[in-house]
Design goal:
2 copies of one chain form a homodimer. By secondary structure, the first copy, chain A, is α/β, with parallel strands linked by helices. In chain A, 52% of the residues lie in helices and 14% in strands. Chain A is built from 12 helices and 8 strands. In chain A, helix 4 packs parallel to helix 5 and helix 7 packs across helix 11. The mean pLDDT of chain A is 95. Chains A and B meet through helix 7, helix 8, helix 9, helix 10 and helix 11 of A and helix 7, helix 8, helix 9, helix 10 and helix 11 of B.
Amino acid sequence: MPAFPVNRLCIVGVGLIGGSIGLAAKARNAARHVVGVEADADTWADALRMGAVDEITGDLASGVRDADLVILAVPMEAILEIIPRLAPLLKPHTVVIDVGSVKAAVVRAAKKASPLAFIGTHPMAGSERGGVESARADLFEDATWAVVPPINYIGDDIEDVTNFITALGAKPVTMMAPSHDEAVALTSHLPHVLAYTLTAMRANRSEKDQKRFLALSAGSWKSATRVAESSPELWTQIATQNAAPLAAVLRTFAAELLTIATALETEDMETVRERFAAGHAAKMSEREQ
Amino acid sequence: MPAFPVNRLCIVGVGLIGGSIGLAAKARNAARHVVGVEADADTWADALRMGAVDEITGDLASGVRDADLVILAVPMEAILEIIPRLAPLLKPHTVVIDVGSVKAAVVRAAKKASPLAFIGTHPMAGSERGGVESARADLFEDATWAVVPPINYIGDDIEDVTNFITALGAKPVTMMAPSHDEAVALTSHLPHVLAYTLTAMRANRSEKDQKRFLALSAGSWKSATRVAESSPELWTQIATQNAAPLAAVLRTFAAELLTIATALETEDMETVRERFAAGHAAKMSEREQ
């Protein structure tokens, strides 16, 4: 990757995240020319009209050719499928990053794809509404953006990548893949599983019951289930790529719920009060951060 | 309860809900004169300045004397403590309603307090920020407001109560207490337990881990944990008053999470996909309602 701003940026996957990166890079002069690679040709006109990319193609090889920085902004499975094919398609010194939600599998794949100059990343921003039509130039403003080097990383591209991320308005934070994946299992993947499970449980009732349940839904239901609007296919890929950390967090979380259920059944109000008070105190301290 | 608008409305507990009822009743001419009964004298000046009440007192007996409609807008335990004491304090034909989140215990208490003319209700509106300073005249606009008559109800006050609720801008829906309590166990009480449990789990880590977890929190975490800001004392009372339905829903929910954990551990991607797709489809159909 050359001097900043990036001369030629290639974004593979021009959806919500890829499109927002293009918009932010243009708005903030982080890239001079942006090439999009997007398999769904129906979205090309939108992406060009919005200014998310300067040109767009369905062909990976011609898109990444001559790029100084390549960003993989496709679903997890596609990231893992593209990484092994990239090295021969690139000119020397091209840096590749991805923006997938799970990092261990990606940096493992990148290590095997040597001599690819690869750094994993993950912007903590998104929306339950996907697609380039939901892309926004300010999506990453003040968002944490994890930077995850491969195991035994010896390159010198991290600074270039963090400079680019900073230029998009985000805050780069460097960490290793297992630390990242364990944290997002709790902070992001679990909330998605909870949302899908809540709405599925409601739907698993008679039609008459469901009407009543929906009438008796207010703000707490809407907040808790909002991300069930997210693509179940994308989230199946994320969950299965982060299977072990997510399964562990699900088991701990289920055990906590069962402890509360037992406390309720045995009229052990003190345990209920103590759990709720601990959660409340934790939330209030979050707000102060 | 006499002709509409209510001549003299007494609101017992002038916090978020009680204060919002006062503001809405004044703004929409649903009551001519509003008396507040509030134990916390520090909030009296705010309640009067905001116009949530026309007069305010700390004394229940003098507040409810001469009232045509009395609304109990205090926490669950206080509702159950006040109901048995009310009948001797009221003039003939006064109607009493409560706005508590659980109904079976309340209508049971009201039945024992015969000849009290009592109807349970529950507005599906609120906020994680309590107190009269958060009260809003439009809090109930288009919100469902459950109307729950006592068992073997033979009075003729339901129409007056639903007229009053409609006048506040809400949509009254009549149902029996067990149906109400079973539904809100899933749609409201469970989301609160999930929020408290999520933030408590995050707080149950080393300080260094917590920093990373907070940095890697985005929109899905914020939505899922928003209501952990709610008063843990209020929610302990709600949860323990609805103990059996909430414990049942917690056990079913935990079992669903463990099914997903097992599917992740055994690389059973199809089960994960099927669960997420069912939740997603349910959420999309909710949005169409």
